[in-house]
Structures are given as structure tokens and as C-alpha cells.
């Protein structure tokens, strides 16, 4: 096994194994295609696996054909006289055929198990994706009525105070809900659409609060087509109004900002209202903040987060950080 003899042996081994693998693979695919005609919905046949009942003959025939053809090819490359296994003594034939079939079966079993593991990994990934999508759908189903009830509660209060404004607000609410609930049926939409829906919602709130609610929306044009989950910021905006600006006698300003930091998208909802009060800054556990955290965890895992912090002299800032996804089509 030294020098030239080693490399000659390696050449023979590589050529023969390549021919055996090719022969078995061709027979396997051929048998699968024939069987597929009578059972076109069989997933194993569609993956070119006819089952061990048919693979055993494929291995037997492929191993013998591959060994003899590989021997001829290797001998031709080296300028040797081919020594075929089938032309040897009965003892040589028994030993050669047994060893070849054993190695061929072992190799086939190895690749079969590797493909099964790969198929299981793909199936598990698909199942995890379906579970995550179901979780997102459930969270979305919780968010939509919550947003609707909050908006109707604002409208009910306005009916008693200013009926004419309430009628105008109702017309705007119908248009807003139609656009919002239609958009919420998609898993992602452009950040510009998210800002547009929030602008419409804040117009409704301004009709109720009047000059007590000032709005400042800042969306860089370069981020307008970044894809985000629909209604992601809606609960945070509702919280800012309900718990921050409405309780304040003079109201205040709600700011909605978007910026890019490296490979991350940072979305900020802040107000200069009553603030977080006695609640710890990092422990927002109401429906709105918990909804946002659950959606981020389901959609992005540990790559996204929601942070709450007080503002000086008063107010609150909610910051959503998530990885920059591919942009959506305009």
C-alpha cells in the first residue's frame, strides 16, 4: 500500500464505487418512475424511493454491473488487462461479490438514513412555521376586536359631547376600519402603510380630543417599503393616548418615529403625557404591550424586543427593535 500501488488501488476503488453508485441510482430512479405511473400520489415514489422490496434487486444488479464496468474503466485508464470478478474462481467470485454487495448495501443504507433525517428536519421546520403562523393569526384575532372596541368607546363618548363631530367621526371610522381590517389579513405590509393607518386612527382621536392631541409622525422615505407585521404599533399608540395623553389636563404630543440602526429597524412611540406612573419601566404587562411582545417573539424570536422607558419631565417611550427584513413591493 505504498507509493504507486496505493494510488492505483485508490483509482480502482474510486472508479468502481462511482460506477456502483451511479448504477444503483439509475435503477432506483427508473423503478420509481415506473411505479409512480400506477401510484402518482405516493410521496416516497415522488422522492424516488421505491421501498426496500425493490431496492434489494437494484442493489444486487447495480453492484455487479457497477463493479464490472468500473473495473473495465479503471483498467483502461491504467493500461491494465481488466480482471473481472465474474471471470474469477468460485472462491474469488464469492468473496468479491459478497464484499461488493455488503459495501453497496451499507452505502445505500447510509444515504437512505441521511435523506430520512433531512426529510424529518424539513417536516419539522414546516410544522414549526405552521404553528408560528397559527399563533400569529390568533394574536391578530385578539388585536382586531380590541382595537375596534377602543375606537367605538371613543366614539360613544363623543356622541354625548359633540353629536356633529361624532357623525363625521363615524364616517371616518367606517373608512378607517375597512382599510385597516383588510390590511390586517396579510402577514406583512409596508411600514408606510402602517404609518398611514396610524395617521388615520390619530385623526379620529383628534376629532375627540381636539387641540389636546398633537401628532408628529416621522418616517424616512428609505424605510417606507420595509415589511412589518400589520397593526404592530396600534396597541402602543392606543396605550399612549389612553394612559398618557387623555389623563393629562392639557393633553400633549404623540410622536411616532422610525429609524435604521445598522441591520435593525427601530420604531418609537412616545408621548409627553402622564407617564408610566408607579409601574416599573420595563414591566408593561397590559394587553397592548403583551400583545406586541407576543407577536414579536412569534415572528422574530429573540431578534426583536419591546422596551418601555419614562421620559423627563413626564411621558413614556415605547421602542420596538426588530431586524430589517426584505423590502416589500411598492
Describe this structure in words.
One of its GO terms (molecular function) is phosphorelay sensor kinase activity. InterPro entries: Bact_2-comp_sensor_kinase, HATPase_C_sf, HATPase_dom, His_kinase_dom, Sig_transdc_His_kin_internal. Keywords: Kinase, Membrane, Transferase, Transmembrane, Transmembrane helix. This is Sensor histidine kinase. By secondary structure, the chain is an alpha+beta fold. It folds into two domains: 3-124, no CATH class; 136-323, Histidine kinase-like ATPase, C-terminal domain (Heat Shock Protein 90), CATH 3.30.565. Helix content is 62%, strand content 13%. It has helices spanning 3-38, 43-46, 52-78, 90-161, 163-183, 191-209, 234-245, 287-300; strands at residues 189-190, 213-218, 227-228, 252-261, 264-271, 305-310, 316-323. A hairpin with a 5-residue loop joins strand 6 and strand 7 (316-323). The chain starts with a helix and ends in a 7-residue tail after the last strand.
Brief summary:
GO terms for molecular function: phosphorelay sensor kinase activity. The chain has 330 residues and is of the alpha+beta class.
How big a fraction of the residues is strand?
5-15%
Strand order in space, largest sheet: 2-4-5-7-6
C-alpha termini separation: 66 Å
Q: What radius of gyration results from the CA coordinates?
A: 34 Å
Return the domain count: 2
The helix count comes to: 8
CATH superfamily of the largest domain: Histidine kinase-like ATPase, C-terminal domain
Overall spatial form = elongated
Count of β-strands:
7
Largest sheet descriptor:
5 strands, mixed
CATH architecture group name of the largest domain: 2-Layer Sandwich
GO molecular function, one term: phosphorelay sensor kinase activity
Keywords: Kinase, Membrane, Transferase, Transmembrane, Transmembrane helix
Transmembrane segments: 6-27, 93-112
Protein name: Sensor histidine kinase
